[in-house]
Amino acid sequence: MIDVAVVGSGHNALIAAAYLARAGKRVEVFERSAHLGGAVQTRDDIFPGCRIDTGSSAHILIHLTPILAELGLDRYGLEYIDCDPWAVYPLEDGRVIRFWKDIGRTCDSIAAVSPPDAAAYRRFCDEWRPLSEAVLDTFLAPPKAGRMAWTMMRKGGFRSGGMERLRTILGSYRALLDASFTHPAVRAAIEWMAAQSGPPPTEIGSAPLAGWQPLYHRVGVQRARGGSGALTRALVTLIEEHGGAVHAGRPVDRIVVEGGRATGIEVGAAPHPGHPLGEPPPPPGKRELVPARRVLAGCHVSTTFGQLLRDVGELSDTRKQVSDARVGNGFGMILRCVTSELPAYATASEGDGGEMHRGLQLLCPPAPYIDRAYGDFLKGEPAGDPAVVGMTWSAVDPALVPEGKHLLFAWAQYHPYALAGGQTWEEIREREADRILAAVGRFAPNVPGCVEQVHIQTPPDLEREHGLFRGNVMHLEMGLDQMFFFRPHPAISGYVTPIKDLFLTGASTHPGGGVFGASGRSAAKVMLSG
User: Fold this and answer.
1) Residues 255, 83: Cα–Cα separation, whole Å
2) Which CATH number belongs to the domain containing residue 262 in this structure?
3) Which runs of E-coded beta strand occur in 324-392?
4) For residue 289, what are the CA distances in angstroms to 103, 253, 268, 314?
5) Are 390 and 345 in the same domain?
6) For helices 11-22 and 229-241, what crossing angle results, to 10°?
7) Cα 364 to Cα 355: distance, rounded to the nearest angstrom
């Protein structure tokens, strides 16, 4: 009998498995897909000679944690490339704001667009850094209301002007940025970064999403050499070196519960097709029972309680709580392009040293541009003029593509999973891909002309490929009502469940989505302490 059976091979599940294996536990991970890593995955079978990420690409949040150092992942082949400036925001008049890890250099860049906002940006970072660091502390531990309140009071700058501080936090990031900066381009650049977590600019309680800006200056954007999946490969190697096993193409059909406790899993012989919740269980003769002392579910919380625990009658209340969680109607879609050259941004000059192509390219004109895009989304329509984050990783890691070629990844918002008017994504995917490329071409006129091959991932594609319900890359909406000890529900927010020896991890749990790993680390700590 193994000590821990892990369902799913997303990065949180693998990080938890790595900590457990290093602690001497016999761990086995079971992944339904033929490809390991969930949304932290790089494949070489999409375009010949190219390494293409199919999920995450930029690693930021994990570098705010001690995970990489604690696990010593550099010893397992993981190497990161520092991409500085970590973001650029081109204006349509030819100017550009560059966000460097060095705040002074960033302020100099902002000053070329709006001198008053250069000083305002430094004040903004100074004012929000204590609170953001306090939030980070709560993200790095299991969620507890008392600990959160104490950390906020002690570290978050509430000792003076506490009520006014609280009022700002409970507002929207649009209101915060409007009050902090004068130039619309400065506001739009920070706003578009904040929007990557999901909530729209006017959502109540979203102000801290913009307040994380100073923490981005601490670590910048890091790119795993060889592709995002290099993190997955290092974790798998660590687990195997410590006696564990990681199985691809082995879907878990059921978590076995006997006498109110998890006693193992039933595993199928081949990957399931289709919707995670809509998959019929395989014939009984093709299942294998894997006894385990404990089970850790790293998949979407709706998969765990809607499918894997479907026969457990005492979980009816929990199933209702999970079904009430806000998954939303998708998020965005992404294009993975092979190009003959890098996007020729009008703001780039021959002497800029490739600065425009190292980090994130924030392609979103000032408001009301993003408001119109989100308005289309609310009507069940893809954004007519999508906002885009461009990524050109071949500029910092040429080995990703054959000589003379480049990569352009274009993540665009807002694109609903369920469409209005009887439309289907199969019918409109090419049209929407053209719109996204046109949005990039607004800033880089050689796009789409330089694009040679395109791999399209719509919201249904993201669901099918990675088990991301309704295409939500964060699993659940990241609104204030679904964060901290509310995620995914107060009754199961601390990685534990009503079933003894059954634990949770992943983006469905605290602290949420992104390549963070904090959920996996905390889940392992909870399991090792009990």
Assistant:
1) 42
2) 3.50.50.60
3) 330-339, 360-363, 387-391
4) 55, 10, 9, 22
5) yes
6) 20
7) 18
Residue owning tokens 């329509």: 381
Q: Residues 52-57: what's their mean pLDDT?
A: 97
Task: Say yes or no: 133 and 107 in one domain.
Answer: yes
Residue ending a domain, choose from 411, 444, 466: 466
Q: Tokens for 90? A: 């081109």
Please indicate, yes or no, whether residues 318 and 332 belong to a single structural domain of this protein: no
Are 318 and 347 part of one and the same domain?
no
Pair (123, 213) in one structural domain: yes
Q: What is the pLDDT of residues 25-36, one digit of tens each?
A: 999 999 999 999
- Give the span between the Cα atoms of 294 and 308, in whole angstroms: 15
pLDDT in tens, 266-319: 998 654 443 343 344 445 457 899 999 999 999 999 999 999 999 898 899 999
What is the rounded CA–CA span in Å between residue 329 and residue 468? 11
- Per DSSP, the three-state class of 191 is helix
CA 293 remoteness from chain centre:
31
The C-alpha atoms of residue 516 and residue 527 are separated, in whole angstroms, by: 19
pLDDT confidence of residue 173: 97
Number of domains in the chain: 3
Q: What is the pLDDT of residues 64-108, one digit of tens each?
A: 999 999 999 999 999 999 999 999 999 999 999 999 999 999 999
| Cβ 279 vs Cβ 308: under 8 Å | no
DSSP H/E element including 319: helix 316-323
State the number of CA atoms in the 13 A half-sphere of 365 facing the CB.
13
Residue 180: which domain range? 103-221
What integer pLDDT is reported at residue 165 of this predicted model? 72
The two tokens of residue 246 are 């990681």
